[in-house]
Specification:
By secondary structure, this protein is an alpha+beta fold. It contains three helices and nine strands; from the N terminus they run ββββαββαβββα. Helix content is 24%, strand content 41%.
Length: 122
């Protein structure tokens, strides 16, 4: 539980953790978006020999990007993309894709520390 949130075991031994941004109240053209619809961060851990691979998509606000990215990089987790899915949304939300290989507990701890720099509910 180094991540601070439990997940679900999926087929193929993948462990998926959903992190909906229920703390955000985002509107797009006057319509409030539900966290499960477009504001769902997620992480997926998969065994690979004696290591673990993790990849995911983190929903962040603009002011969360730099501190989260800095901590991810310090923890050896790569950012593979940063973009916006929801043009014209307020507040603006961004989607940070991540990837890393290593010890599962160390990766989960680094992810927890990075997410703690956002308001992502854990």
């Amino acid at each position: 539980m180094a991540l601070g949130k439990s997940g679900t075991e999926m087929p193929g031994g993948i462990y998926r953790v959903g992190l909906p941004r229920s703390d955000l109240h985002v509107t797009l053209d006057g319509v409030e978006l539900k966290p499960a619809l477009a504001l769902g961060s997620w992480l997926a851990f998969s065994p690979l020999g004696n290591r673990t691979v993790v990849m995911g998509d983190l929903v962040l606000t603009e002011n969360e990007i730099a501190p989260v990215m800095q901590r991810l990089e310090e923890g050896g987790i790569g950012v593979t993309a940063l973009h916006n899915h929801l043009l014209r949304s307020h507040p603006a939300t961004f989607y940070m894709h991540i990837f890393a290989e290593g010890d599962a507990v160390a990766l989960a701890r680094a992810l927890h520390e990075a997410l703690a720099r956002s308001r992502t509910p854990l």
